[in-house]
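lol ok so funny story. i was supposed to be doing the assay writeup but got distracted and ended up predicting the structure for this chain instead. priorities right. anyway since i did it might as well share w the group, maybe its usefull for someone
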Amino acid sequence: MILDQESWMDLRRFRALHEAGATYKEIAEACGVDWRTVKKYLRSDAPATPPRAPSRKGSQPQVIDPYVGVVDAMLRADLTIRAATIHERLVAEYGFTHSYQRVKMYVAQARPRIGAESGTDVQAERMRGLHRRFEVTPGAQAQVDWGEEGGLLERGRSIPST
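and the output, tada:
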């Protein structure tokens, strides 16, 4: 049995009682666990940190696995395609019934891999065309953070506002 951190700390505080002569059974009854669990965690060579469950990463198939080829083909055709667009196409054309989050997570790890295969810098590709700087002649545009709309001036004459 793998204990959570709180149960492990509860059990560890009985170490002094065990060293004073308390039995595993008595400690187990006080903690609400099996006596074998108490014996395991109160041994002299027991670890000083709480136990951790083994990672389940990679033990279950991903729901996106049947669609990996399709998603990779979409990314090879357009590396800047959004994960939301891929999800919409999978739902509409391939009957994908799972969440957008699954597609987004796969695309996040697949995009750099496919970019490296094609020799494309993914970050530069996504930033291309994002912002264009432009200049205007002085006085051609104005920006106001706050204010009241009043009358306008044109060549020194006041024009009533409508």
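Residues 65-127 form one domain. Residues 41 and 57 are 26 Å apart (CA to CA).
back to the writeup now i swear
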